[in-house]
Amino acid sequence: MAGSGTAQLRDRDDIVLRVEHLTVEFPAGRRARVHAVSDVSLDIARGETLGLVGESGCGKSTVARAIMQLPPPTDGSVRFRDTELTRLHGEELRRTRTQVQMIFQDPISSLNPRRKVRDIVAEGLRIWQRNGDTAARVDRVLEDVGLDPAVVADRRPHEFSGGQCQRICLARSLVLDPEIVICDEPVSSLDVSVQAQILNLLEAMKSRYELTMLFISHDLAVVKNISDRVAVMYLGKLCELAPADDLYGAPAHPYTRALLSSIPRPTPGHEPDEPGLSGELPSPLDPPSGCRFRTRCPRAEQRCAEEEPQTRSIGADHFVACHFPYPRGKT
Amino acid sequence: MPDSRATTPPVVTPATVDDSLPVGAPEGPAAEHAVRGNGLDPTLPAVLTATAGSKRRSRGRGVVFWLALVWLAVVVLVALTASWLPLSDPDKQDLVNRLAPPLSDGHVLGTDGLGRDILARLAFGARVSLIISVSAVSIGMLVGGTIGLAVGFFRGWFESVTMWALNVVLAFPGLVLLLGLVAFVGQSLTAITLVVGFLSVPVYARVARATTLAAAQRDYVLAARALGASNRRIMFGEILPNVALPVAAFGLVALGVVIVLEGSLAFLGLSVKAPDPTWGSMIAEGRQHLSTTTHLAFIPALVMFLTVLAVNFVGDVLRSRFDVRESRL
Amino acid sequence: MSVRHPFSSRSSRARARDRDRVDVSDHEGPLLDVKDLRTWFDTPAGTVRAVDGVSFGLDRGRTLGVVGESGSGKTVLARSIMNLLPRRTVIPAGGEVVFAGRNIRGLGVRAMGRLWGRELAMVFQDPMTSLNPVVKIGRQLTESLRHHLHMPADEARETAVALLASVGLQAPERRLQEYPHQLSGGMRQRVTVAIALACGPSLLVADEPTTALDVTVQRQILDLLQAQQRDRNMAMILVTHDLAVVANRTDEIVVMYAGQVVERAPTATLFGQMRHPYTEALMGSIPRIENPSHTVLQVIPGRPPSPVDLPRGCRFAPRCRYAQARCRDEDPPLVEDDDGHAYRCFFPVGTAVTTGNDRVEEVGV
């Protein structure tokens, strides 16, 4: 699994974000390079939520940052509406980027501890000097995310809980009315009950602000809950992409299956379908040839080492990059 | 377990969620963490680490703090208003009454080897100590802090070259420079202040650079970029507020060090020229008479000691007050 | 049944060592009996009642799950059992921790030093900070063996290699010479498990051992813990915030909220019928794989109470959807029914109760 290919890109009018052959590599010492993201392609249509899952080292966060050009990717194209982001620079890039906002995993460290909430949330407006009443907009967006401006605006982030900080982060992102919001593990560091609040809030904000979302997480249940389509990554490559219910109902890629079977279920007596994943994650400095998952794959054969699998369609909007995927219909 | 819950749950709109302020620690499974910046295990609940210190220390503002503050206020006031206070002329010699002990007639703290009033000399000497320490530290903080901020933010070859230059300055024997300068310019307060300030720049630059490097990694800087902030805006709006405090804390410690430094320089004859009084030169002069009249050296030394101690105490409390706010329980 | 120490050779030295051990094998009754445990902290903000009256028993060979969110007191509970609390700010507020018939609460460091590692072991959440980053793995492993079991260096080394192999690490001899940062998160956690199990403890406390790990690694580590527990007939306490983790890996579960036990039951019983509204709400707020996408999650409004300012009456009442006036006035006691199911609620879910108007209703349908 883990392959290249663009079969999964759709030809529709309402594609808001289109990422093609995205590659991000970092130098690591002499002559070595970390292959964080290798030839990943995906797209998101207006109003859709694409979930991106994978474990540590799969490159999902790197994809998010590369989309935002923070820093720009080593190779590949990122099209936001009709604009090629990789070709923008300086102020033009900064201006366009306001339409693609991001919220991060640790809500508390995403907020400057020395600034007041009001200033933090108003920052976007102040930079671009929008006409109109900044204070009123700030108050409105704070109310939208469930905070009382009178209580919250003049305080500093350390006075708030993780869930409240995440709300502030969301308010900051929404104040500029972005088109796309990328959520990079926004609930991973929150308690379960707060997690539910924030997830519901994200859904509510998505409909109120008419957003398109890219939701990144390692928690498969959370991703399923919030996404329309889900993409699975492993070691910098895309494994599988399908509508959420399809992916979880009939996973085709061996890695997806292993991942799903490892999720603990809150049902006593539940037996996992598959044996767990064995072995260790290969080093991104020197990923395996051909399919990067082959070293841990129960279905790997010689072909997997020689030829890298390209993504192909195996059903309605269901794409997989594997030479020997599980057939659909297998439980 | 029926899943009917999934289809008819009570819909809780965001606005009804409680947003009162928590007095508790930040939450989250992997982030059941405690304080930032004091190196404690971030996975421990705050209650186990924020309370690790003794109770009294965490209250901080005890009697000692107020005493220290009062002492500093007195020193500063006296230094500022020395000309108008009913003190004797610090330069007036009274050879008849030389080496008078404290509490003599007309001289509360006695007189020195030339009959000059010690109290008056202390008051005017305070000026020198304060001016040198405050100015030198300010120069160091402003210049060094800015360099460190720029270097830590922009990095690249700019950083390499600058840090190399700073290391050269740091390695430079300051005394040699001072001696040379004194020979060239004379023993003026300005010269000494500038040299001490200049020599301390690398240290502040390092502190500022380290803090900047850490702050630049944080997600809020990334968020600011995402909002379209320019480099300048990020540097001064996001990073500077976080760097200023550690640099200032460092400066507070340095204040005391420079006061003592002046004393050492006086011993080498490198401080402000006689007959202008400085605490250091008073101690140096008192050294000659140490076997017979100890109060000459002892009194200015005591005053210097108390002042530096007070600066350190006050600095400690101020520092912990600003840091503690981030780690409330 | 005597405690099997799988890796010691049966030399006369080993036999002499075994004689010195605290002998838990002949002890009758539960291995661990926690009685009304209270751990309070003295802080500038007031007295924090982190653990406020927790009781349970645990037999050898059984696993207890302790479930709760941040601030529930579960980590402080784990450390109280292990006696790993900062001495200066802890108020000894009462309760007993009876281990193999002996109350170890409040024992000094020297006495506990004989138990730690030997009979009581702990695995922590973040292997990066629970392993010493500047000491090689081998030394961290053999330390315990040499200190408690007085093993000579070569025997300790062999035992360490066997231990690393038993926790599933490849090339164990090489690992001995490596430093923690050279291993992945999963591998490091395996090492901490190996260190914890080195001397064959009878009780293992695992405090969120997999929270910081990926889900596939999480499964590996939990499987490992379960297998080791079976082989060694250990008692295990698994502390976590994740109900799903405890569902299939524990015999009994304790749910904590604001320092108290709000529900305690054998695992199947608990999931079969949750009685406490908090447990029910917690369950409802977890996204489930089985549910379709975009299922609205049940939310528990508000936030846990501040530990220095606990509300009068039931501590969950301010957030409880079934709360009545009585809940706000009186503190409900923990009552146990016939199935061994204990809960702290006046109006438990799924039971018929009389309300103020003398109407009988079913709570929480």
Low-pLDDT residue spans of chain C? 16-22
* Structural class computed from helices and strand pairing of chain C: alpha/beta
| CATH second-level architecture of the largest domain in chain C | 3-Layer(aba) Sandwich
Biggest interface reads: A-B, 59 and 40 residues
Biggest sheet details of chain C: 8 strands, mixed
Sheet-strand content of chain B, in percent, reads: under 5%
Low-confidence stretches of chain B: 1-40, 51-58, 324-329
The arrangement of helices and strands of chain B along the chain is HHHHHHHHHHHH
Structural class of chain B: mainly alpha
Task: Please tally the helical runs of chain B, counting DSSP H or I stretches of 4 or more residues.
Answer: 12
Shape label of chain B = elongated
Rg over C-alpha atoms of chain C, rounded to the nearest angstrom: 22 Å
Question: Mean pLDDT of chain C, as a whole number?
Answer: 86
Q: How many separate structural domains of chain C?
A: 2
Under CATH at level 1, the class of the largest domain in chain C stands as Alpha Beta
**Gap between N and C termini of chain C, in Å?**
47 Å
What's this entry about, in short?
With 331 residues, chain A is α/β, with parallel strands linked by helices. Chain A has helices at 60-67, 90-97, 117-128, 134-144, 149-152, 162-174, 192-209, 220-226, 244-249, 254-262, 302-306, and strands spanning 15-27, 33-45, 49-53, 75-80, 83-84, 100-103, 180-184, 212-217, 229-234, 237-243, 312-315, 318-320. In chain A, helix 3 (117-128) packs parallel to helix 6, helix 4 crosses helix 6 (162-174) and helix 6 packs parallel to helix 7.
Write a structural description.
The complex is a heterotrimer of chains A (331), B (329) and C (365). Helices cover 31% and strands 22% of the residues of chain A. Chain A has 331 residues and is an alpha/beta fold. Chain B has helices at residues 4-7, 46-49, 55-59, 63-81, 118-154, 156-171, 174-185, 189-216, 219-226, 231-267, 279-288, 295-324. Chain B is elongated. Chain B starts with a helix and ends in a 5-residue tail after the last helix. The radius of gyration of chain C is 22 Å and the shape is globular. Chain C folds into 2 domains: 12-31 and 61-82 and 108-255, Rossmann fold (3-Layer(aba) Sandwich); 274-363, no CATH class. Chain C has an 8-stranded mixed β-sheet with strand order 7-8-9-3-10-11-13-12, with helices on both faces. In chain C, strands 1, 2, 4, 5 and 6 form a 5-stranded antiparallel β-sheet that branches. In chain C, strands 14-15 form a two-stranded antiparallel sheet. The chains are: A alpha/beta (331), B mainly alpha (329), C alpha/beta (365). Chains in contact: A-B, A-C, B-C. Chains A and B meet through helix 2, strand 6, helix 3, helix 6 and helix 7 of A and helix 9 and helix 10 of B.
